[in-house]
């Protein structure tokens, strides 16, 4: 099988149910999800270097990588009749379960947290911000074209998970989160 097809040389690409311009809002949305998946792979590479601290997170993040492919699939569907959606409410519920589980490991926070700390935490904060951008691209797409609404919910919750596990990574590695000190307390204690 050849990697190149030459079918996109004129500036269009195939999606499920047709062809669109490569700068179409749909392509921008699933392309940003793909970018997020790449950054998550990088973060997982950093975790693998300290596997004993991250065995559970590595397994969970591998599942997230598969689910991000599912998000990309659903975003590439022009009409739902072309192929059934893959992302569902149960996937969002699972993210919430993980958020609660990993949040329980970390100390209470009252202020915003600056990105950083350990290498793993820093990489997960990059994932969080790329995830938020992917969510914004999906919001833009949904203004003009039909989408699986569960993808938007999934990405919204996933960015919360990345924030939580970035803090978990710092905690597991003995790094303190750096609070943003130029504001008052914004979070309630648990």
Return the structural class.
Answer: mainly alpha
CATH C-level class is: Mainly Alpha
Whole-number tally of structural domains: 1
Tell me about the biggest sheet? 2 strands, antiparallel
What do we call the CATH homologous superfamily? Cobalamin adenosyltransferase-like
Unreliable residue runs:
none
N→C terminal distance: 54 Å
CATH topology: Hypothetical Protein Ta1238, Chain: A
Structure description:
Helix 1 runs antiparallel to helix 2, helix 1 runs antiparallel to helix 4 and helix 2 (51-75) packs antiparallel against helix 5. A hairpin with a 2-residue loop joins strand 1 (12-15) and strand 2 (18-21). The radius of gyration is 18 Å and the shape is elongated. The protein has a single domain, classed as Up-down Bundle (Hypothetical Protein Ta1238, Chain: A). It is built from five helices and four strands. The chain has 190 residues and is mostly helical. 60% of the residues lie in helices and 6% in strands. The protein has helices spanning 25-48, 51-75, 89-103, 119-144, 149-172; strands at residues 12-15, 18-21, 113-114, 178-179. The strands form two sheets. The chain has a two-stranded antiparallel ribbon. Strands 3-4 form a two-stranded antiparallel sheet.
Q: Quick recap of the structure?
A:
InterPro entries: CblAdoTrfase-like, CblAdoTrfase-like_sf, PduO-typ. With 190 residues, the chain is mainly alpha-helical.
Strands, helices and their partners?
Blueprint: E1 12-15, E2 18-21, H1 25-48, H2 51-75, H3 89-103, E3 113-114, H4 119-144, H5 149-172, E4 178-179
Antiparallel strand pairs: 1-2, 3-4
EC number: 2.5.1.17
Protein name: Corrinoid adenosyltransferase
Family: Belongs to the Cob(I)alamin adenosyltransferase family.
